[in-house]
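Team,

Forwarding the record for the chain on the shared tracking sheet. I've put the sequence and predicted structure together so nobody has to dig through attachments.
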Amino acid sequence: MSNKNYTMIHYHIPQDLDDPEQPNAYTIQLNIKDITYTDILKTFPIKGQFDFKFLYQHQKENFWLDIKSNATPLPIVNKHIHVRAERVLKPQETPPIQIVQPLQQSQPVQQQQNDLMQF
């Protein structure tokens, strides 16, 4: 039997309407204390670009940390690492912005209505 450590990583993707109270999960073959931001980048199971936030607990208050340092160990809450993976849209995926300008009327509305009623 192997002595290798496995750690369960809990994650949710808000844009996919995942429930943070019932997160998805995957495993990493590392001790929980050794897992870094880089490990999450390399092993995250969903394809795409994500901005990762990590759950941190201080005095029973929860906060989402934006950790970008590759070698920083990740915060552990209740013996787990919790990740909020926010999808990053590419510029071509951004919905186009339409600027709607009001129509310019050459005649006042009342005059146009009067013109229509003449036979």
